[in-house]
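Structure tokens please, single chain.
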Amino acid sequence: MFRIDDPTAQASLPTPEAAGTQGYFTEGNPGSGVSATLVRASFLNMLQEEIMSVLSAAGITPSKSTYNQLLTAIRKSAVLFPGTVIADPGYLPLGVGGMILQWGSKNVPTGSGGTLYTFGTTFPNGPIGIVASHYGASSGIINVEAVGVSASTYRLTHNSGSTAAVFMIAIGT
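Here you go.
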């Protein structure tokens, strides 16, 4: 996304006309006297600025040659809507005291030393807490532990006799 940079573009956002009655676009019908909807600069400026606000909130520098910036910003900002797929591992800056929420799911093999995994992003000051839990089909109780946690990695262990599906959630600063 990049703001319009045509030589005829204004350097600052013009004041839009007064708001009218909200409605929907139409192609018009000359035979019945219905005019086609005019697409005004104020409408296009509104769309442009809405998109630029999402990029700005996600800390993304606008680029004229990158065509997935809005998607990247939405994923990075973790704006959650029903059905939205968020990366795994993923993280969400909470905006409160530098807090970060992170999550991930792994198929953890058996082994006494556990398996080392990397967080979606490094906690600048380290994690405050991490919780890991088995999910999916199970023939009994599986105890899962997160051990050896650092600012960028964590180790998952479990007492199952086979590979276990594990979900992890962590919070830190």
